[in-house]
User: Fold Ribosomal RNA-processing protein 40 from Rhizophagus irregularis.
Amino acid sequence: MTSKKNKMEIDQEETELEVVLPGDPINITRKDLKLGPGLTLTQDSVICIKAGILKHFSKKNIWYVENNQRRYIPAERDPVIGIVTYKGGEYYRLDIGSAHQAILPILAFENVSKKSRPNLNIGSLIYAKVVLANKDMEPEVWCYNPDTNKAEGFGELKNGYVIKCSLRYCRRIISQETGIRSLLKKLGEKFEFEIAAGMNGRIWICLKSKDIKNTIYCCNVIKRGENLNGDDIYELIDSLDEE
Assistant:
C-alpha cells in the first residue's frame, strides 16, 4: 500500500475520556488549545455543543467530540474530499457534504500563479484542508497545508473510486487506529494502492493496476471494517489470507 504524504495525519496518542452532552462545560487547559468538532470556545470556558465521546490527541492538544453523525459540519484543519460544482474566474465551489458548499480560491495551491493554476473541471475530485469554518460564512478550503505552505498530498484526485461511510470511521482511518492500520497494511500486501480519507465521510481509493474488479474488492474490504472493532477486525484481517 502507498499513500500520498500527509493525506492521513497520524497521531497515535488518542485518549477516550467520557460521554458528554450539549451544554456540558469541558474542564481543559486553554493554552495552545485546538478544538475539533463538537466543542466551542466561549469567554469563560469550553462548551460541548453535541452529544458523544470526548476525545483528546495529546501530541497536538486537539480536543473533539466523536459521535455517529452523518451530516458533516466543517471544522478548521479537517481534510475533506470535495467535488467541483462551479468554476469561476477567482474561485471554485466544492460540494463537501455540508449545509453550504465550500470556496476554493484559484490560488489556494502550492506555488501557483494565475497562469499556472490547475485547470479543474466540473465533477473533479479535490482533496483539501478546511481553513475557515464559521456558521455565518461559507467554508473555505485550500489545497496545501497553511502551516508549511506545501501541498503534502492535497490537490486533485485523479482516477480511483470514492466510497461513503460514517464520519467516525473516516476519523479512525485518518488517525490510523491500530486495527485499521493493520487492515490497510494487510490489504496493501495484496494490492498496491493509494487512499485518502476526508472527515466529511468520503474515502478515495486508487489501485496502481486500475483493475476494476480489484478496486471493488478493496472498497468492499474497507467498508466491511466500518462496524468492526477489537477482535472482529482482526478476524477480517485473517480472512484476507484465505481469499
Q: What stands out?
A: The first strand starts at residue 14 and ends at 20. Confidence is low (pLDDT under 50) at residues 2-13. The chain has three domains: 14-66, 79-157, 161-240.
